[in-house]
């Protein structure tokens, strides 16, 4: 089939997760013909790339996909993995998108005559508008130093971790202390496994403070309405690491210092593997202290809000460290430690290599304003801090999708008016 024989559809959405389905929802509301391409199946990540005890870190009442707000029995709770899967499956059923599952988009490029040529594993297509909904967390990050580790040591990335039983007997090294790393380290720790944790610069926050979930306080303070353009860090906020906390067992803090008191071994960031020894960078104390400063600063902001608004709440408190590293260990003999497995939790990168359009900066990131790029017809949805903190989550992705679809509808209407005028 030649490109001239390609199937034309006004809008193509690449990615069938909650971002792509939210876009499809609003396109259907406006009666705009479109197709959604998904390389696996709709919202598969929640089922195939999360561990068994995974749960949301934000309360259920924040789940507000378009036409599908959370209406379960526990709005202040935190949905577990099977509940999340059921929630997104029901959303997909409601949306009933025109989706091509099991189809990968391998290339999309602008056509000289306008619009885009889209190559897929299901054939050739063309479109006037393309919405990139493949997300910001696609390719797992694993450092090249991993190649140095003995083959006898099992290595997996966080998306492949399911439960402690899948790992061989022995100690486990968890690399990274962001949301996934901290929660996986806790999962292993609670199962009685010996855990060594390489700690990074991720911040933390309290689960509950002064009688309420911290998320509820921040919502009252309009924090979730702050946009990239009004945030003090501006676009720099997109580089921020999410705070580690958990919704497990009804929700609680994750305090790495308490883990250390209970026998977990903490180190600075993993640096290399040389001569049979893992080496770590100095900075464990600095990372722990910085995380605690963030924890206390968020609570202090809540204290200020309570005082200024005369809210009746329990008294304030300040977190005091329950453990300090007496001396940072900068190396660890691998064989002597009994470590038999490594779980890499140092993040993901997006994959936009298939998109041939001048919408990226020197770092390979899309340049956009709330998902709309400088190239008419190319939009992004579902990225962290696309517009607000909730842009990559169930809470605000629907509003972002509505904004993008409004712009698409206006462009398509303009194109139609132009054709009518020409006639």
Automatic annotation (TrEMBL):
<dbReference type="Pfam" id="PF13738">
    <property type="entry name" value="Pyr_redox_3"/>
</dbReference>
<protein>
    <submittedName>
        <fullName>MSMEG_0569 family flavin-dependent oxidoreductase</fullName>
    </submittedName>
</protein>
<dbReference type="InterPro" id="IPR036188">
    <property type="entry name" value="FAD/NAD-bd_sf"/>
</dbReference>
<dbReference type="InterPro" id="IPR024000">
    <property type="entry name" value="CHP04046_FMN-dependent"/>
</dbReference>
<keyword id="KW-0560">Oxidoreductase</keyword>
<dbReference type="InterPro" id="IPR050982">
    <property type="entry name" value="Auxin_biosynth/cation_transpt"/>
</dbReference>
